[in-house]
Design goal:
The protein is α/β, with parallel strands linked by helices and 502 residues long. It has 3 domains: 141 residues, no CATH class; 190 residues, Rossmann fold (3-Layer(aba) Sandwich); 65 residues, Immunoglobulin-like. Helix content is 34%, strand content 25%. The strands form 4 sheets. Strands 6, 7, 8, 9, 10, 11, 12 and 13 form an 8-stranded mixed sheet that branches.
């Protein structure tokens, strides 16, 4: 799958290092530059103030003056963030986003690789002057702090379960919306025999019940109230008994769910973000492929709409990133761009993962025509095969008669036979994993089997298998090792290069 990888890391308290890697053709292009962190943080503070003010007000009609004012402010802040972070790359990103909208082909993924300390930035809100980036392209995030601790068993095949946890805090103010959200998610999966549903609501949703249901689950959907504090054990999701489902409470989790949707509202800021990130980071470390969570508070009814549309797209066969892109856009168009709920969601992990292996549920008219033709061809082949199976034994059983060949039996009064085309099997997809490389000092060159991948720190998508990894930097002794890449967990290489004597 084509992708655009944007790396953003902290150089200092005042500067950020940014780079972009276009994985769109056989010759990726990598560019690097620096960003003024004070300007980026200033934009974030303005976004946060605008979001808080918008959420304090009662919902207003999308065509009202106040709604237009809020929507325009979000666009302005998004454009400022886009221009400040992408700088000279703005035109190319804008053109790629525009061509993706008009093209019927596959949209490239935008993957932000960021320091954990930058997770509060509303990167999904960026606006390219024509549209919000996350409305044009599927967007995901990879955290440099993310590191799988145990092997995660892929559950793309076989028995699958959906664990739904609703309103563990038993808050009457949101109970109605919580029940509607649970009903919507349940109705999407209940019609499929491929998924077993496990649902816990209110007092049933204690930490012991959650920890018992999570191992081996395909999907973990949690809706309720989040809380953030300076201590990781008191940051997470409120439970009915006053306890908190936090990152540390999940550290003993084995066989983590493949995907998690934390549809909870947790205040986000530089100071408190580590609290809400605790659950996300712990799940990713334990082997969860991807996790969706909010950057700021949510309107309860809007959150229900996003979740419902997200799962509808996911079971139709699209990837996580594309399902979130579509549900964001639908929420903005239906509920209004001034409702900041659509922009609150961030996808951590791999946005290219799909719940359904073959996305054929909603084919285009052209694809439907081809599918119908193929159906007729397969049917014709089946009829011919059945005829052969029936007529061949009859020919063999004829006493004193000549044994008839299958071709002679199937064809009576014609001399020319056009066999139905054989369906060609698609090539097996290449299994890939992730190689996370860090070095001291930074900006060292990484080579995989003699091919240049990029510079450190970075995360690379690499075919599964044994590979020779070399890390080199001028003035330092070259580091070499054989590294095994698996689909999960990520292979992490942390190296301190030895300086050469002059």
């Amino acid at each position: 799958m084509r992708s655009i990888e944007i790396t953003i890391t902290s150089l200092s308290t005042t500067m950020l290092a940014a780079s972009i890697d276009y994985h769109l053709d056989a010759s990726p292009i990598v560019k690097r530059w620096q960003v003024d962190r004070a300007i980026v943080d200033g934009i974030w503070h303005a976004v946060r103030a605008a979001v808080r003010e918008a959420l304090r007000e009662p919902p207003s009609p999308p065509d009202s003056p106040r709604a237009r004012e809020v929507a325009e402010s979000l666009r302005s802040f998004g454009l400022a963030l886009f221009q400040e972070i992408f700088m000279d790359e703005c035109d190319r990103i804008r053109d790629l986003a525009a061509s993706a909208v008009t093209s019927s082909g596959e949209r490239p993924f935008v993957i932000f690789k960021i320091d954990k300390g930058l997770a509060y930035l509303p990167l999904e809100l960026m606006h390219d002057g024509r549209a919000f980036l996350c409305h044009s392209l599927p967007v995901g995030r990879v955290l440099y702090a993310e590191e799988a601790e145990v092997r995660s068993v892929l559950r793309d095949q076989g028995p699958r379960s959906v664990v739904i946890v609703g309103d563990p805090s038993e808050d009457a103010a949101i109970r109605g919306d919580i029940e509607r959200e649970i009903d919507a998610v349940r109705s999407i999966f209940r019609g499929s025999s491929d998924f077993a549903l496990k649902i816990a609501i209110g007092r049933e949703a204690g930490d012991e019940r959650i920890l018992a249901d999570l191992p081996g689950a395909t999907i973990f959907h949690l809706t309720g109230h989040g809380v953030a504090s300076d201590h990781e054990r008191t940051s997470g999701v409120k439970l009915a008994n006053g306890r908190i489902l936090s990152g540390p409470s999940l550290k003993g989790l084995q066989n983590a769910p493949a995907f998690a949707f934390l549809n909870i509202c947790t205040p986000a800021s530089e100071e408190t973000w580590k609290g809400s990130l605790g659950l996300i980071e712990t799940l990713l470390r334990r082997g969860t492929r991807a996790c969706i969570a909010s950057l700021w508070e949510l309107r309860s009814q809007s959150a229900v709409f996003v979740a419902k549309r997200f799962y509808a797209h996911l079971v139709a066969g699209v990837t996580l990133g594309e399902a979130l892109r579509r549900s964001r856009l639908e929420a903005a168009e239906k509920l209004g761009f001034h409702d900041p709920t659509w922009a609150a969601y961030a996808l951590y992990g791999d946005p290219r993962w799909a719940l359904v292996a073959t996305p054929e549920a909603l084919p285009s008219p052209e694809r439907r025509s081809k599918s119908k033709t193929l159906k007729y061809l397969v049917l014709a082949g089946t009829v011919a095969a059945l005829a052969a199976l029936i007529l061949i034994p009859m020919a063999v059983m004829k006493e004193g008669g000549e044994r008839t060949s299958p071709a002679q039996t199937a064809v009576s009064d014609t001399e020319t036979v056009e066999s139905p085309p054989q369906a060609t099997q698609p090539p097996e997809p290449v299994k890939v994993g992730y190689l996370v490389v860090e070095s001291k000092p930074k900006d060292a060159q990484v080579l995989l089997d003699g091919e240049e991948l990029g510079t450190t720190p970075n995360t690379f998508e690499v075919p599964v298998g044994q590979h020779d990894v070399v890390i080199a930097k001028a003035g330092y002794k070259q580091w070499e090792a054989s590294v095994e890449i698996k689909q999960s967990p990520r292979a992490n290489v942390k190296v301190t290069l030895e300086r050469l004597r002059q």
